[in-house]
Amino acid sequence: MSEATAADATSADLAADLEAAETSEQRQVRLDKRAKLLDAGVEAYPAALPITTTIPEVRAQYASLETGEETQDVVGLAGRIVFSRNTGKLCFASLQSGDGSRIQAMVSLAEVGEDSLARWKEFVDLGDHVFVHGRVISSRRGELSIMVDDWQIAAKAILPLPNLHNELNEETRVRQRYLDLIVREDARKTVRARAAVMASLRQTFASHEYLEVETPMLQTQHGGASARPFVTHSNAFDTELFLRIAPELFLKRAVVGGIDRVFEVNRNFRNEGADSTHSPEFAMLEAYQAYGDYEQMADLTQELVQNAARAVTGGSLEVTWADGTTYDLGGEWPRIDMYGSLSEAAGREITPETPLSELQALADAEGVEVAHATHGKYVEELWEHFVIDSLDRPTFVMNFPVDTSPLTREHRTRPGIVEKWDLYVRGFELATAYSELVDPVVQRERFVEQAKLAAGGDPEAMRVDEEFLRALEHAMPPSGGMGMGIDRLLMAITGLGIRETILFPLVK
C-alpha cells in the first residue's frame, strides 16, 4: 500500500469514527426527547391521527394557487420532516410523503401560540413524522404550504437521516433500503416501475386467458432447471427438503390436470454465485400453454416485455436506462439459430455432429473454459464467447444442443438439437422457452442421463423425479413453456443492476 493510499484509508476511518460518534450523540438526544414527551403524557407514537387528506392530494388540488394566495380550506395531513428551519416567531418544515411529494408546513406564533411553538422547537427533529392541521396557502415565495394551527408528533425518529445533499453509497443503498427510499427519488421510481411491470404481466396473461397459480417452495427433490439447490431439513417430516430452483415440474402437473394456460410469479432459490445479473434469491415468471410450442411462446414473451415497457414509460417502447442511454424494445425481434450464428462467428461449421475433440480444441484455442464438458456445454460456452457481444437488439437464440436441455422436445426436423430459445437483452439472458418434452419414456431417459451426471459430480444435474413421471404418464398435451426473471426484466427496462431492482437483496 502506498503512503497516499494509507493516508486516504486512515482519513476514511477517522471520518467514519466521527460520524458514528455524532450519530450516537444525536441518538441519545432524541431518546431524551422521547422520554420527555412520554413524561408529559404526550404519545411519541400515537395509534391514530385525524388525517383528512394526503400531501399528493393537496398538491394536485391546489396546484393553481397564485403566489401569496390563501384559502380558508382546512386540512389534516402527515409526513416525514426532511427540511427544517426555525426562526423566532415562525418555523418552516418540508413534509415528505412516501411517494416523495413534499409540502411546506409553517408553524407561527400567531397561529399556534407560544407554548406550542416552543414545543415544536424543542421536540421536532429531521426525520420525524408529524401531523399538521391548518389552512392551505401559497407562501410569499410561491410555495404550497399549510399554515399550521395545530400539530402532533406522529412518529419520533431516534436516528437522524443521512445528509440529503450527499449521494448514498451503494452499500448503504442496498443494506438500508429504507434510507434509500426516503432520500432518493430513483429508488422510489424503481419500486413503482416494478409494481407497474407486475400489473402489466398479469394483465397480458389475463388477456390470453391464462390462470395464475402457486406451487411449492419446499420440495422433496429439486428439478425443473440445472442449478445447485439450497438444502434444508423438515423437523415435522424428518426429511431433507430443497428450496425450489424452478416451479416447472409442478406447473406441468397443472397442465396434465387440465389447466391449459397457466403461469406463476414467485421466488426461486439457487445456491450459486452473485454478481450484477445473478442473485441467490430471485423472482421468476413461468408460463405453460397446452397445444402451443416455442415459437408461440416467443410471440407471447415479446408481447409481455413490450407491454411491461409501455407500463413503465407511459406508452413508449424506447426505454431510458439509469446511465442516460436509450434502448429500443420495439419492433419484431430477430430469431437466430444457435449453431448457425456460432458457425458464422467462428468461421467454421459447427453442427450437432461436430466431434467433442474439435469443440475442445476450439475452446482451448480461444481460452474458453468448460466445466463438466459435454458437446452441448461446449457449444453454449463457445456461442457466448463468439456471438453474445454482437447482439445489439433483443434477440431470440433458437435451437439448443439436446444434452443441455433435458426437459425439452427434440427438434421436429433437425436431429441432435431441441426446440428451445433464450432471449438476450442488453447482453444477458432474460427469458427461455421450450417446446416441452411430454413423452414420459423419453423424459425418463433424459432424467437417467442427468442422474449419471449428478453421480459424476455435477451439482447442477437433476435427479429422476418419479412423481413427475407418474403425472406425465397420464398424458400431457403438446405444450410450450417459458420462464423469465422478473428482476432481469426490470434490468432490461431500467438499465439497473440486479441488486437495485430487488427491493431487499440478499447481502452478507
Automatic annotation (TrEMBL):
Pfam families for this protein: tRNA-synt_2, tRNA_anti-codon
Catalytic activity as recorded in UniProt: tRNA(Lys) + L-lysine + ATP = L-lysyl-tRNA(Lys) + AMP + diphosphate
Cofactor binding description: Binds 3 Mg(2+) ions per subunit.
Residue ranges of domain Aminoacyl-transfer RNA synthetases class-II family profile in the record: 194-505
CDD domains: LysRS_N
EC number: 6.1.1.6
GO cellular component, as recorded: cytosol
GO biological process: lysyl-tRNA aminoacylation
InterPro entries: Aa-tRNA-synt_II, aa-tRNA-synth_II, aa-tRNA-synth_II/BPL/LPL, Lys-tRNA-ligase_II, Lys-tRNA-ligase_II_N, Lys-tRNA-synth_II_C, NA-bd_OB-fold, NA-bd_OB_tRNA
Residues the record lists as binding Mg(2+) 2: E429
Keyword annotations of the record: Aminoacyl-tRNA synthetase, ATP-binding, Cytoplasm, Ligase, Magnesium, Metal-binding, Nucleotide-binding, Protein biosynthesis
Obligatory cofactor(s): Mg(2+)
Gene Ontology MF terms in the entry: ATP binding; lysine-tRNA ligase activity; magnesium ion binding; tRNA binding
Binding site for Mg(2+) 1: D422, E429
Protein location: Cytoplasm
Family under the similarity heading: Belongs to the class-II aminoacyl-tRNA synthetase family.
Assembly description: Homodimer.
Protein name according to UniProt: Lysine--tRNA ligase
